[in-house]
Structure prediction request, 137 residues.
Amino acid sequence: MIRVSCLVLVDSGGAVLAAQRPHEKTLGGLWEFPGGKIEHGESPETALRRELREELHLHVGPLVALSPVTHCYPFGTIRLLPFLARCRTRPQLVLKEHTRARWLDADAAQTLPWAPADLPVLAEFTARFPVAPRPTA
Prediction:
């Protein structure tokens, strides 16, 4: 089983950071919560902080564990360990492993093609940060 940690980074307005995988890689073109594989001897939190620094030049504060996800892909089974962090202002990102990054509210996030293992994490985000009702005309 491949252990992976990921970050659900939420800004002060309730938008979440999503990153698009490169088209030439496994699950290419799909969107995900940034993170990566946990190396032998690493804690999920340490691995996540390392991956965020390496892939996005991103540093985050306190992490709160979310519900883990197990998903079977054709290339293997992954155990996704998601964490939630908040930021007051959106950080400047340097994309080294992703094609694009976007900040999305819960409604907009539903419109993207996500990596299957990230879908339960997206559902948990949506439940925690629902979009405020919009006034009707």
In short: Strands lie at 2-10, 16-20, 31-32, 35-37, 64-65, 69-73, 76-86, 100-104. The longest strand covers residues 76-86. The radius of gyration is 15 Å. Residues 20 and 31 are 4 Å apart (CA to CA).
